[in-house]
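Subject: Re: docking follow-up (guanosine-5'-diphosphate)

Dear J.,

Thanks for your patience while I sorted out the input files. As discussed at Tuesday's group meeting, I've set up the holo structure prediction with guanosine-5'-diphosphate included as the bound ligand rather than trying to dock it afterwards. The sequence and the ligand SMILES I used are pasted below, so you can double-check that they match what you have on your end before we go further.
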Amino acid sequence: MASSFSEIIEEARLSARALLDFGEHLFNPTVRLGVTGLSRAGKTVFITALIHGLTKGGRFPVFEAFNSGRIARAELAPQPDDAVPRFDYENHLRTLIEERRWPDSTVDISELRLAIDYQRHNGADRRLTLDIVDYPGEWLLDLPLLNKSFEQWSAESLARSREAPRAHLAAAWHKQLAILNAQGKEDEQATLASARLFTDYLAACRDERFAMSLLPPGRFLMPGSLKGSPALTFAPLDVPVNASAPEGSLWAMMVRRYEAYKDVVVRPFFRDHFARLDRQIVLIDALAAFNSGPEALHDLEVALAGILDCFRVGRSTFLSTLFRPRIDRILFAATKADHLHHLSHDRLEAVLRRAVVGAVARAEATGAEIDVVALAAVRATREAMVAHGRNKLPSITGTPAPGESAGCEIFDGTTEVATFPGDLPDDPEALFDGAGFRGLSSTSPDKSDFRFLRFRPPPLERDGGGEPALPHIRLDRALQFLIGDRLQ
Ligand SMILES: Nc1nc2c(ncn2[C@@H]2O[C@H](COP(=O)(O)OP(=O)(O)O)[C@@H](O)[C@H]2O)c(=O)[nH]1
Ligand SMILES: [Mg+2]
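The structure tokens for the complex came back this morning:
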């Protein structure tokens, strides 16, 4: 009863918001573009490069409205939502260009508004408002919790934690779980210990060696202001899926907190942010998954399916017919493609396509258009053929960040080197089945089949007479897909 009542309120609020947004769209055409991806996927760099390119004359041959000169100007406008932090564009850009460092990592949501003045194909002058919303992919992976009971979530989390390589990382938590009495009296200390061990396990899974993606609840690893609150102090229990918790039990306490997490964290995110997006780009650090190995790639695949389910969840189950999430284009982008020679870019796209194929089929049924691209928002490398014995290998050259190492060499951040990062296999299957492709989770760095160095951002490119621009790979293709049709 309580839950259906809160859902009615939720729906009423959502539809009020939808009407408000709709009214604004009528007078002032607006696209709300969500930029998401797991932590370190490249969101901050992507948004910074996109804004810099649009406002400062980037090189975007494939972005038709821009390349044909129909865009008269694009400029920053005051951020629309009072309660959301502004995306710190100027600072990020300064770090990137003047210091040639990558921007510091961010873990919260932020927004920025761009006003684009353009000429329609028929000659009329128009303005498109582009709201860019940067939010953690971890929050997105929480949305499926809305449709799951505590018992279902527990069963899924436990099953996952019993598979390799997670089982090993979950050992300490499993040990504690085994002696926990779910039916027993509620117990704050046991709950605290359980939540801590469970969080440690999630953190270990995220480590570079394992690079797991699917680690809900998202706020356990990025608690922000909720750190230590009851809504973040719970953990899965080994309880039957179809039973319900005895009153006053430890189990009942976990259920209460799990539901609080949904109320305090997940629903507000859905209502205030996710449900208002028109377009979505999901950034994926697929190279980090290759770096780790097939288990990480498999985990990524499941996470991507989870993400795509969110778009479906939003459409059909959670809400009334009055309100419908309107995301009608979703782009999956493998980031940091500049770590590979361009001969491998198509292969990177193929791997990503392979990873989302099942999920895409499902999401297409919702009417959203979906595409896949391998890109580098900021291209930190150039390409070279480097002699290796009697062969020449397609390599990349760049300045490794200070402290990066290869073999026994440690780089100081000033010397340029050419490296051969490894080839992606012709057939994506090889990466998924683990035959013939080894990563960090099963071998040492010098023996793994793919290993990448972190390079420093490049200097601005000053060729071509126009304003100096940041080099990129296929950023224009992403723009064309995401907003090209709104600038016709
Ligand atoms: N070479 C290269 N590295 C990138 C690129 N984008 C992101 N990175 C790297 O990935 C890290 C995380 O990027 P960031 O945008 O902060 O990720 P976020 O957590 O998703 O916002 C950066 O510090 C860079 O080291 C890119 O286009 N090229
Ligand atoms: Mg960020």
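A couple of observations from a first look. Confidence is low (pLDDT under 50) at residues 313-323. Residues 43-44, 105-106 surround magnesium ion (ligand 2) (CB under 6 Å).

Let me know if you'd like me to rerun anything.

Best regards,
T.
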